[in-house]
């Protein structure tokens, strides 16, 4: 059975980190999959989880908006369009912090491989296209742990829109950036918004070591790609 | 900040530990300003309708870590800032805030957050035109609070900091640390110090004097009943 390497490491943070958790030692690994809705994130996470578990690893799936603490509040506020941009962004940051400290960290300490369905990058990209200062976002998320691998499933908006319509009969309000008033035409708005978000991811690529994966291909092809990266990474940390 | 967004109004805030008398003073200030016909808006810490509930839910279940505690209070602040404080300042109101970002700077740092990080999180907030800091020895504010309250709440007493198993003892230590943080900010943040141990009327006189000096000419002229008793 493959092992994650037996020695504990201290956590690495993007910024100032969390002072009261500075000495936390972890054994597990954190892998993030980013990408727009309908880019195949959850399908790939399911496939990767199955493979990792078959290889004998303990795996934890986590994602944005799954924290017990604030999820309901976020959904409600969103539905009612009551909160401003800065407020929403801090709300999401609180939700993320809750998951990070109460789910991701304990799992990493216990030696799990944590597969995160989205992480701070989506939050920062959304903020940036809403005119929020990028430096502010970078610093806000200075308490986030640096993952071992971050994939970004890059899908052309033209392809993406077809996949969305295979799942739903309409375009989601926020995934179309409708709150930005880009266009009265929802289709047009969706295309512009998705391009803006994709551009933000490319902008973050270097700073955050994002692995940009061509997500326009068949699921099996994309998955083979992801799996190769993961196998390679896990191989490299075993002595 | 770009000029076209420069607020016409004024922002006046009060800080100090629980029991320092700051709320009494800002309420009196509010009543006076209204009485003399100045447009005023009052806001207080942790009061946004949408966010308050979530915070109190988290607090009830003792679910909060220092970081989530900090971010949820920042969310509450941002909600009030985006919805009320900033637009009203731009419209020319006198905005009065019972506790402002310095409460977060003090509490979050005492709980173990990075001081730089907390300051960045609140980096979007306008600097107050006057920040009154009500200085009171811990024993006095402690007595004022404890006399009126049969039971201290978990976070209020700083029980999450594991300072003591006795809520009152924990509260006392917690408050002393908060005071330490406030004192360290006095100069850098330009606090106007009010001695919270003197008579209420005496304190209010000092507060009003400072406020009058800062009021724009136009507002001073429009005051319907002139200056307060001096």
Structure description:
The complex is a heterodimer of chains A (239) and B (230). Chain A has 239 residues and is α/β, with parallel strands linked by helices. Chain A is 49% helix and 13% strand. In chain A, strands 4-5-3-6-7 form a five-stranded parallel beta sheet, with helices on both faces. Chain A has a two-stranded antiparallel sheet with strand order 1-2. Chain A starts with 8 loop residues before the first strand and ends with a helix. Chain B has a single domain, classed as Rossmann fold. Helices cover 52% and strands 11% of the residues of chain B. In chain B, helix 1 packs across helix 8, helix 2 packs antiparallel against helix 3 and helix 6 crosses helix 7.
CATH topology of chain B: the name is: Rossmann fold
What is the radius of gyration of chain A computed over CA atoms, rounded to a whole number of angstroms? 18 Å
Architecture of chain A in CATH? Answer: 3-Layer(aba) Sandwich
Can you name the CATH architecture of chain B? 3-Layer(aba) Sandwich
Provide the low-confidence segments of chain A as ranges: none
How far is the N terminus from the C terminus of chain B?
37 Å
CATH superfamily of chain B: P-loop containing nucleotide triphosphate hydrolases
* Average residue pLDDT of chain A: 91
Q: How is the largest sheet of chain B built, in terms of strand order?
A: 2-3-1-4-5
Look at the structure and give the CATH class of chain B: Alpha Beta
Give the oligomer, counting copies of the same chain as homo and different chains as hetero: heterodimer
């Amino acid at each position: 059975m493959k092992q994650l390497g037996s020695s504990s490491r201290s956590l690495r943070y993007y910024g100032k980190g969390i002072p009261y958790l500075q000495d936390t030692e972890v054994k597990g690994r954190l892998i993030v999959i980013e990408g727009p809705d309908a880019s195949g994130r959850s399908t790939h996470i399911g496939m990767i989880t199955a493979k990792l578990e078959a290889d004998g690893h303990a795996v934890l799936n986590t994602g944005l908006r799954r924290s017990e603490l604030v999820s309901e509040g976020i959904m409600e506020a969103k539905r009612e369009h009551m909160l401003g941009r800065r407020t929403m962004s801090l709300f999401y940051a609180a939700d993320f912090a809750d998951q990070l400290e109460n789910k991701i960290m304990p799992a990493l300490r216990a030696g799990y491989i944590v597969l995160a369905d989205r992480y701070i990058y989506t939050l920062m990209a959304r903020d940036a296209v809403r005119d929020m200062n990028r430096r502010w976002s970078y610093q806000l998320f200075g308490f986030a742990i640096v993952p071992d691998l971050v994939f970004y499933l890059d899908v052309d908006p033209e392809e993406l829109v077809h996949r969305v319509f295979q799942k739903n009969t309409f375009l989601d309000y926020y995934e179309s950036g409708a709150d930005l008033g880009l266009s009265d035409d929802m289709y047009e708005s969706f295309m512009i918004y998705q391009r803006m978000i994709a551009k933000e991811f490319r902008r973050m690529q270097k700073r955050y070591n994002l692995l940009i994966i061509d997500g326009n291909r068949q699921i099996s092809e994309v998955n083979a790609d992801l799996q190769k990266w993961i196998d390679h990474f896990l191989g490299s940390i075993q002595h | 900040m770009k000029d076209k967004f420069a607020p016409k109004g004024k922002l006046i805030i009060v800080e100090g530990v629980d029991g320092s008398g700051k709320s009494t003073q800002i309420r009196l200030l509010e009543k006076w300003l209204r009485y003399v016909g100045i447009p005023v808006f009052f806001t207080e810490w942790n009061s946004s309708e949408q966010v308050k509930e979530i915070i109190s839910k988290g607090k009830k279940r003792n679910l909060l870590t220092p970081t989530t505690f900090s971010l949820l209070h920042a969310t509450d602040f941002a909600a009030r800032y985006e919805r009320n404080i900033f637009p009203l300042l731009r419209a020319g109101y006198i905005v009065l805030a019972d506790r402002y970002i310095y409460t977060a700077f003090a509490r979050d740092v005492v709980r173990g957050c990075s001081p730089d990080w907390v300051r960045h999180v609140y980096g979007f907030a306008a600097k107050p035109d006057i920040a009154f800091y009500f200085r009171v020895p811990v024993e006095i504010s402690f007595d004022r609070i404890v006399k009126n309250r049969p039971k201290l709440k978990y976070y209020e007493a700083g029980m999450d900091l594991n300072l003591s198993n006795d809520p009152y003892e924990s509260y006392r230590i917690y408050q002393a640390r908060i005071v330490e943080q406030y004192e360290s900010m006095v100069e850098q943040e330009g606090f106007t110090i009010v001695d919270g141990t003197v008579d209420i009327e005496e304190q209010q006189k000092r507060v009003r004097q400072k406020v009058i000096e800062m009021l724009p000419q136009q507002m001073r002229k429009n005051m319907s009943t002139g200056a307060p008793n001096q």
